[in-house]
Q: What sequence folds into this?
């Protein structure tokens, strides 16, 4: 199955070593150089015109946005590639064409920091995989877990906001 890799790169590419390394990593993983999108990314349009597309979305350590807002509407994160300490690429595919490789799922939630919550989540229900602090004092967190219902129950019992299951791996 041809993957049609697409690299979303919102920065200037001239002289950007992380950009060059990202293209090389994608080429190594897929066997072809990715098409590059530098303007606004429209995932539904990409997947409508090419359901086999694989979009590589960079998350930089100094990012102030939340890449999870791109998901839903038929797109899921299926993998994460570490490019450097400053950048990782989220691998996004159309949900319809996504096969579940294992029983783990990625869940997103908006939470107010509380150590008891993290201890409970990391014990057996889900493990924190990524977090982003917001100006509002909340944390947008990505969790890895096996049971979506247990995850939602813990969130509801602690008054946190569940944003959805956004991927499987």
A:
């Amino acid at each position: 199955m041809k993957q049609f890799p697409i690299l979303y790169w919102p920065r200037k590419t001239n002289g950007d070593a992380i950009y060059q390394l990202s293209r090389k990593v994608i080429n190594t993983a897929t066997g072809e150089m990715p098409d590059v999108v530098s303007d606004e990314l429209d995932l539904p349009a990409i997947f409508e015109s090419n359901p086999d597309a694989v979009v590589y979305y960079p998350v930089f350590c100094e990012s102030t946005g939340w890449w999870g807002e791109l998901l839903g509407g038929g797109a899921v994160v299926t993998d994460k590639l570490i490019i450097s300490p400053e950048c990782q690429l989220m691998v996004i595919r159309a949900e319809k064409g996504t096969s579940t490789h294992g029983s783990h799922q990625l869940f997103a939630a908006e939470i107010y920091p509380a150590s008891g919550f993290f201890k409970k989540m990391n014990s057996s229900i889900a493990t924190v995989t990524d977090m982003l602090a917001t100006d509002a004092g909340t944390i947008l967190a990505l969790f890895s877990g096996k049971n979506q219902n247990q995850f939602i129950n813990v969130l509801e019992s602690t008054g946190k906001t569940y944003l959805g299951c956004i991927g499987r791996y």
About this structure: DSSP finds four helices and nine strands in the chain. The chain has a mean pLDDT of 77. The domain at 5-97 is CATH 3.40.190 (D-Maltodextrin-Binding Protein; domain 2).
